[in-house]
Amino acid sequence: MARASDAAGAHAGTTALSRTRAATRRTPSWARTPRRDAPHRPPPATRLLMAVPAAFTLLQLVLVRPGAGLGWDESVYVSQVSGHAPAAFFSAPRARGISLLVAPIASWSSSTPLLRVYLAFLSGLGLYWALRAWRGLFPTGVLAAGGALFASLWITLFYGPQAMPNYWVALGALAAVGFFLHARRERDRRGPLWGLAAGAALMAWMRPTDAVWVTVPLLVLCLRDRRPRLPLALLGGLAAGAAEWIVEAYVRYGGLGARLSAASRIQGGLGLHDAVTDQLRSLGGRALCRPCTGAVPSAPVIAWWFVLPLLAAGALVIAVRGRRTTATALPLACAVTAAVPYLFLIGYAAPRFLLPAYALLAIPVADALTHLVTAPTGRWRLVAVTLVAVGVAGHLAVQFAVLEATVARTTAAHRVWADTATQLHRLGVRPPCLLTGGDSVPVAFSAGCASAYTAGHDASTTAAGLTRTAHRVPVAFLTTGPARPPSYARGWQRHRVADGYAYVAPAPSAVGKRGHV
Asked: What is the pLDDT of residues 342-387, one digit of tens each?
């Protein structure tokens, strides 16, 4: 009797448990009451992928000094949406994507530290989004390692919190290629198509010409696959991102061809150039190498640049042997096309130009390094792990050393511009005002003045125009040395300032002053 009773009780308990499970299955997940004793935590793989962008953001805030002022190009981009100073001349190659990205802060605040912190956090979120696009294509550990390799470059850390477009082109490129690979595999899902369109739009929003170079291999694959949704998403994203740039080409330059021609002229004439050595010279911390003279940095500083293609080639060999060629070959192909114009088609260099290529190389290179430390067995594995660990540690030491020197040098230059602006205020050059010559763009933004040039790439006025303006508002001509000023400024009073010399026009009469430039 006792055994029968126990059996009946067990059967009743099993039946009740089955009913509970059935009810749970019928209840939608969003309607279930969460357990208070088990708070939601991301899975370990997601936490690992989140750790890299979080560390990247923290390193930017610690190492790149948010208090440093704006650079030349940053002043141009930020001035387009800032109420602190009139908009600087916006040349043909530039796109307004980065100006719109900083608008939520720059439109109401002139605080550079606030802008830097905003961009640092945004760049970390963007890196996480771009790495997420590759989930399922490579192991999460490889993605985290690739993200860490890219994020630890001094170039990435330096430009992450800056109002410059190249880092964002890199993120768009990395995300677009990852989503493209997913869209080819998962034909029934729309999410990867939207991600592909977003990545392409981000690239084109920031630099339309760079977006075209990056997506050449993707367009070739689209033609081979003959599936309309892929090219529709890709071309739709490119068109959405570049729409404003194209419209502006017809409004300001007389057409797309005219704007491209003007952009080529400003960049020194696009054609066959060997800029490889110039890029090597810039690796020592030079923000812009134009003209690119001087010695190439020491071997430890440039060694990673030569190891990178070797590891990329190794990654391709590993992928071919593992029969997963496309996921490795496609980002490598896009990295090559992204780098071609900046290595062989322009006559100067800047390290930030190659950020999209570095981002696309990062994951395949991380895959190759992972294979190096996991494939060998026994003593050979210990040797491989030791070599890779020593190599990575040395690489990081070099990157942080170059970053520290670059930040110190840049901060000092920005401080000189700010001091010059302060001294000009003491000389009576206060808004509304106009600066020309020398480093007038960043100094003018710091002083709240307009800037203009009579010659060069940013020519936007004439000597007669400057003379007429000087009758209405304070005008100053800046020069780094005591050279003879241009004819229109020879009667102006010369003053020593932090950035060199300032020739200040006679104070405009109260009657002639109009309150605008």
From this structure: 999 999 999 999 999 999 999 999 999 999 999 888 889 999 999 9
Nearest to 474 by CA among 418, 415, 514, 416: 514
Residue 434 falls in which region: left (phi positive, over 0), alpha (psi -120 to 50) or beta: beta
For residue 423, give the nearest of 515, 510, 509, 504 by alpha carbon.
Answer: 504
Do 165 and 102 contact (CB within 8 A), yes or no?
A: no
The span from the CA of 346 to the CA of 367, in Å, is 32
- Which position has the token pair 């990654």? 315
- Residue 502 tokens read as 């300032």
The residue type found at 252 is R
3-state secondary structure of 502: strand
DSSP code for 477: E
User: Residue 54: CB partners within 8 Å, gap ≥ 6?
Assistant: 124
DSSP labels, 394-457: HHHHHHHHHHHHHHHHHHHHHHHHHHHHHHHHHTT--SS-EEESTTHHHHHHHHT-EE-BSSST
Give SS3 for 320.
helix
Three-state secondary structure call for residue 294: coil
Which secondary structure element, helix H or strand E, spans residue 333, and what is its range?
helix 325-344
Q: What is the pLDDT of residues 73-126, one digit of tens each?
A: 999 999 999 999 999 999 999 999 999 999 999 999 999 999 999 999 999 999
As a whole number of angstroms, the distance between CA 392 and CA 369 comes to 10
Question: pTM for this structure?
Answer: 0.90
Q: How far apart are CA 242 and CA 209, in angstroms?
A: 9
Cα 359–Cα 365–Cα 370 angle in degrees, nearest 5? 135
Please write the tens of the pLDDT for every residue from 32-64: 444 444 456 777 778 889 999 999 999 999 999
